[in-house]
Amino acid sequence: MFNLIEIDLLRHGKVDAPPALYGVTDAFVAAEENHKIVTKLSQFIDRSYDNSSTGHYDEIYTSPLTRCRSLAQLIGRQTKTEVKTLSTLQEMNFGLLDGVSFDELETVDLSAFPQVSQQKPWSLLEAFWQNPAQVNLPLAEPLIDFNRRIIQMWQQLLSQVVHQGVTCKNKQKKLLLVCHGGVIRMILAHILNLDWTNPSLYSTLAIANGSLTRIVISSLNSDNPLNSENLSLVESSSSASLHYQVKHIATPLIS
Question: Per its UniProt record, what SMART domains does this chain match (predicted)?
Answer without folding.
Answer: PGAM (SM00855)
